[in-house]
Amino acid sequence: MHHRIWLDRKMPKNGFLTPKAIANRIKAKGLQKLRWYCQMCQKQCRDENGFKCHTMSESHQRQLLLFAENPDKYLDYFSEEFLDGFMELLKRRFGTRRIHSNVIYNEYIQDRDHIHMTSTQWETLTDFVKWLGREGYVTVDHTEKGWFITYIDRDPEVLARQKLLEKREKIEEDDEERMQKFIQKQIEKASETEKNKNETVYTELKRDDEDDKITFNLGAKSSKDEGLKPGTSGEVKKEKAVTNALKAAESALSSKKNEKDDRKRKKSALEEIKEMEEKKKKTENPKKDYWLAKGIVVKVITKRLGEKYYKKKGVIKEVRDLYTGLVKMTDSGTTIKVDQMHVETVIPAEGKQVLVLNGIHRGCQATLLSLDSEKFCVSIRLESGSMKGRVVNGVQYEDISKLAQ
Prior knowledge:
With 405 residues, this protein is an alpha+beta fold. It has helices spanning 2-10, 19-28, 48-55, 58-69, 71-94, 101-108, 125-135, 156-198, 234-257, 259-265, 269-284, and strands at residues 37-38, 43-44, 99-100, 138-143, 146-151, 297-300, 313-320, 324-329, 335-339, 343-345, 353-356, 365-372, 377-382, 391-396, 400-402. A five-stranded antiparallel beta sheet has the order 9-8-7-6-10, with no helix packed on it. A five-stranded antiparallel beta sheet has the order 14-13-12-11-15, with no helix packed on it. The radius of gyration is 40 Å and the shape is elongated. The two termini are 77 Å apart.
């Protein structure tokens, strides 16, 4: 009897700080195996025995009865929740940047309370990506490395801005066409005057008084031709004078007609050079799918390189094959090789130096002026290139990155 009492006193109590309770909480942290998760009850079990006990419980049986009454309702609900969460992460985290679908999915499932794909209408991630492409949510691209997707931004403000840019480009093209037509007309006028100059015009012989006699003096020179130099003709001189007068009149008329247009079109040489540079960049340097550049600061966004590098920053020391680079980590000083889909750009504070990674100003250094967290874009002032000093608005997060000091 006394021995039993002593054993009861020595046995530990089931409290919050007992080793068993602490071990259970450690095991419960992070992601568990998907096959032991119940989406209807939103309960994660640690092992097969726990999952078996859960499926035999009354609460789970009640949830199954509810699901059996209207399975399409729950399936549509889970599918919609999964789609909203996935697209929100894609829009907020990556924007319109081309990214591997597995990278987005791995980041999406980091949330412990996420909707599992097994409870949706899509069986695999490939089926889900293909469905997104068919519905017009993203642009799908299949390569040897897997499925890549690019988010299609259908925000009304973004669409309005794109329409404004297209309208502006169309106006510039119309001005160029109008100028080409004007030049063509000038060329045609010049060619007509040249033809008239070479042709001899014959006129009828007329006289004011019929009683006057017509006389021809073939041997003697007229008084008007006495002042001419030998070897030249007075008629040629007259034709040249008439031609010059016609040209002067035409130029005067054209200058009056186009005086207003010339005032509008008149630009400085610097502005014309800037416009030519912009057009050249638009045609020769469109937005590309690679963006790594030497000297920028990036952040590692994958755990494949190791837990110690996850969410850590580094500086790109060398770019290889456009899509890969050598990154020197800031905290440890180690150098690792990364792919561009394993890192993201770093947005510094206002007033700091950045490098433009994509678009018509690719490769230019700039100063960050302001951030727009709702539209995921920034305003910058270019500090290098032919457009130095120009302020550019609406630059996406993924198109710039902090420059290493």
